[in-house]
Structure formats: C-alpha cells, structure tokens
Amino acid sequence: MQSIDVALRRNASDVFGVPGIGSAGAFIAAHVTLPAATGLVERIRVFLVRRVPLLLALVLIVQLLGGVLADPTRAIAPVMSTAATVAGAVTSGAATASAAAASIRASVSVAAGSAALQSIAVAAHVDPAERDAAFVLLDSTRVTPAVAGNPRAVDRILDAALPATRVAAWWSTLTVAQRTDLAAASPTLVGNLDGVPLDDRIAANREAAARALAAYPRNGSDLASVEASYLARVASGAVSLYAFDVARDAIVEIIGDAVAATRALVFTPGTTASLSDFYGGSMQSLASWEVEHAAASDPTVAFVYKIGSFPQWSITDGPLDNQRSIELGVLFDRFNDGLDTTVVGALARTSVEHSFGSSIGGVAETLGTHFATRIVLGGVGMLAGWQPSTTTRYVAYVAGNDVTRYIYGLAAGDDVGYAVAPSAVHGFEQKDPQLQSDAWYLPLRLIGSIVGPAIEVAQGFINHNRVASADDNGSVLASILSDVASAGEIIGDSISSSGDVPETPAAPHLELLVLSAREMRAEQ
Q1: Which domain of life is it from (predicted)?
Q2: What is the pLDDT of residue 485?
Q3: Across the strands, what pairs with 367?
Q4: What residue spans define the domains of the chain?
Q5: Where does the pLDDT of residue 221 fall: very low under 50, low under 70, confident under 90, or very high at 90 and above?
Q6: Domain spanning 221-523: CATH 2.40.70
C-alpha cells in the first residue's frame, strides 16, 4: 500500500510540490501576491503529503478496482482521476502559484538551501555552557564513579555531545582501575560515549547486554525470545556492539576484525529500521556479505548503524519528514566523529545508505563528515543546499522501477521531501543493480493496461528493498565489494557517462508507472 501511495503522490506532484523547488510556498508567499486562500491551501497540501499517505493509497486502490470492474479499457483512468480529484480538493490557486514559482526558480532554490542549512545548524548546536557542565560531571566520575549510576547524569552527558577528541584525551588520563569502575557503574555511558576506544565500548556493551538479559522475563512473545537470543550472543562475545542503548533506540553492530581491517564500511538502513531488525539478523545481511567476501589481504570491518528512532510507515510518520532526517543526520555526524578517534579512524571509509538513510548521510556530510566513497541504494535524496565533496566518490544503485524515482526532487516547504536527488547531475555515478523480477511480475505485466500501475509500484517497492539485501542481489553486492576495495583511490571526477540510466531525475508524471523498453530488458 505504501508503494501505491508513493506513486499517487508522484502522479499529483505538480500540485503537491515543484521538484527541486523546496520551500517554494514560503518564498512565493513572501514575494508574490496570491489569492488569500493560498496559505490555507499550502497547509492542507502539506498535511495531505505528510500525514495521510495511507488514506490516499486507499482511494487509489478503490478507484483502480472500480475502474477495472466497470470498464477494463479505463483501467488507467482512475489513477489520473484520483490525482485530478486531489488536485481540485487541495488548491484553487495552483496555476498562479506554479507560474510564479517557475519565474523565480533560481531564487527559491537558494532560499530552500539556506533554510535547510539553518535547520541543520540549529539541530547540531549544543549550548557551550551545558557542554562544559556535562564535561565537569563526566570528569567527576574518575573520583566518584557512582555518579554515572544515575540515569539522569548519563543522559546529561550523552545529550551534551561532548567532542570525541576531548573525551578521548580525557579517557587516556584514566587509570585502568578508574575505567573499570566507571564501566561497572554505567556500561551504558561508556558503551555509547564517543571518544571512548573501540574495545572499551564493546566490553561495556557486552556488560549492558548481560544485565538486560539477566533481568529479562523468561517467557513472552516470539519477538521477545529473538531479542533474548540476540542479547545472549552479545553477552557471550559472539556479537560485538559499538553502541547499545534501548532507551535511545540506538544500536551499532560491528562485523569483522577492526584491528586487522584495512577498509571500513558503515551501513545505514532506511524507513522502518528498528532494534528488532538487528535482533533477527536481517539488517546485517549486506554488511556481513561484504565482510565475508573481502579479500584476505584487504579485510573490511563493517558498522551496521542505527542511532535514534527511524521513521515508520504510519499515518503520522514517514520518510518524507525531513526534520527527522536532520535530527538523525546530526547523530550520524557525531557517530562518525567518534569513529575517527578509534582504531579504524584512519581507514578509508565507505558509507552505504539505503532509502531514507541517504538523507541522513547528506546531513552528516553537510556538518563535515567525510567519506572516501558514499553509496546510496534506492536513496530518497538529500536536503536542499547539499553539495558533493570533491574528494568523495558518489555511487547510486537504483532499479528502473524503484519507487524512489517517483519522489526524486519532490519537496514541499521546509519540512517535507528532499530537493536533491542522487542523480548524475548531482555527482552520483548511476549503476544498474540488475535485479531480477519476481516470477509473478511479467505475466501480470502483460495485462498492464488493466493492473499495470499497481503491479509496477508493487514490484518497484520489492526492488527498492532488495537492492539493500543479500538475497537475489548479486550484482550490487559484487559491485559494492569493488567500490569498498577501491575507496580512497577513485574520486568524483570519474563520474560515469553511461547512457544506461538517465542522468537527470525522471519527470513526475503517470508514464513512470509503465516500464520503458530499456527498463523491461533490464528486469528480465
């Protein structure tokens, strides 16, 4: 259903937002005289795009089924009529607004970028006085480690986002006994404090998992048993965690030998990522494959990352909420700062980001995080104002019918969508993931005039998830293996000029729901 919802939003994108414009509504309101109702229209439009995707998807499904039953030759008409109905319901001055927006496109792009950069700066700011007070509190634990046993004290220290270099310098002044006492008083603090060495964080999180397991109920749901099994593996040392704090919805699993590694990979998931995905093992599949298949002479260590609550599919939540990406991107930047102070800090680092994760990576880069290579898998894009680094190689893997193509460049105001698509025009090499269609796809595709749109977005959603997995994804896995091995050796001036993938984001219209001849060949 979410896939169909994405398609609907894309079909109506001329009403819901002008791709690449970002905060056009705010700029137009300030510089162009429009009907008095435009402000209300804008609020209704943003509400529809951001808050009720499932309702719109339901309308589309009902109209699709109704159209097919009434007249199979009119199967596509419901899609267009749905977009038209929504358009009529949410705007009475869209034509005027669109014309005005077109005439000031360049100015609006600058304004949108400035607004996004300001939002990122505000989110990343920590009051210097609070940061200094938190450091004083941290330093007091060398004499009185019991201070760290107070959860409020731990929260205050972690929330202050102390510079990792400052923490690393402080940690080096502690005796072994002081470190041991502090970890015993609060494994959560030591295990999640950027600047603490890798081995010390792993040991602290092992203790935190053991304590959580000891307090765990001995009966419960299947999810609970999976969680308990995972905690047992962490407590035994079979799984190593760089971060673990259930209260903060944070977990980072390490795969591979960090000391022996010559390359580092960080995998960031997308929408719906949760702790349970780690407990079950599905989240680690791609990173595990890359570590296992790296050359013995050039081993890779991977960090599977999730710090903070990722958006879920619900009426009040979703990946187009770019304020969430800013909050999580700030945390990702701090994570990378912390990683820089560890044993893997000097290794060429490749960031692999799936879907919504690409927006997080973009925010981190804006704040100063640097990657040797940045790979996006079905990425939603970045906020207005993002600029590629001249010393980073950018690669995008996206299927021809991946659902994210329908939202490339789609942005509404300062809070919804991503104005910068991971396309060639923005510095990303475009690589075909060569995904195979499911067995049911082509037979149903032959009757595309009847159910084509629904089938197309369904397969597109499947491919969107498959491109970040270790199943039926051999071409991408092998290509990422090569990308990681060459990280730091190839930079952005080697952008591919291949004609296999469009160099600019596809235009937002209904034809995107139907595969081109090239895309059909790619899917076979």
Answers
A1: Bacteria
A2: 95
A3: none
A4: 2-124, 127-220, 221-523
A5: low
A6: no
